[in-house]
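User: Hey, my collaborator sent me this sequence without any context and asked if I could get a structure. I don't really work with proteins. Can you help?
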Amino acid sequence: MKASWFGKALLNLLFPLRGCPLCGSREAAGLCSRCRCFVAAAAAEPFCPICGRFFRGPGTGVCRECASREWPFVFCRAALPYEGALRKAVHRLKFGGRRAAVDYIGDLLAGVWEREPQYRQGEILVPVPLSPERLGERGFNQAALLAAALGEKCGVRYLPVLAKDAGAPPQAQLGRSARHVNVTGVFSVVDRRAISGKTVVVVDDVLTTGSTMAAVASALLEGGARQVFGLVLGAGRTFPRNAR
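Assistant: No problem. I've predicted the 3D structure and written it out in structure-token form, which is a compact way to encode the shape of the chain:
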């Protein structure tokens, strides 16, 4: 599902982009010098090849957590570490309604898509859904905006085939162990025929503990998907199993 030209024009009219799309600096049009350095440095950072989280310091192989557990998704990748300017950009998007940077953020996700050959298998992009309560409060789902932007750039269908039960508190308010319990069983597939036998790429804004991505992937597999990949804008940091 591609965003129409009219919808994009209206979005840009209502929420015009002024300054740097990440930090909001008015230094110049496009990325400011500091954010350009941030994006360039992130491209060279080591990360876990399974969960996609960036390493705290040098290391090789998978992270400590992925070495000791199995995820329902094949792998996940992130465009940038979830810190600094990206954290500010995500907060402005989610809580301030500043959606003008979505097109640029879609470029970041598309760059990750192009660098990872396995994404070529992806047949459907599925955003992580919000609960009806949260969607009503915010007025939009940031993951759906990202998935739509990515789908338009990569030519892959975007289908919101998941629902989230009401009542679960936001993940950001919880600790690591509570996050896993909080999302267990809260996602469900509303259109099984759309994903049956398909390779699905789940799109979200942030991956920290991986609990949400795991819960969504489990729901998709139970709903008939063949395999699930993840793609997020930002990922937290973790420790490499083989630290140097």
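In plain terms: The chain has a mean pLDDT of 86. You can pass these tokens on to your collaborator as they are.
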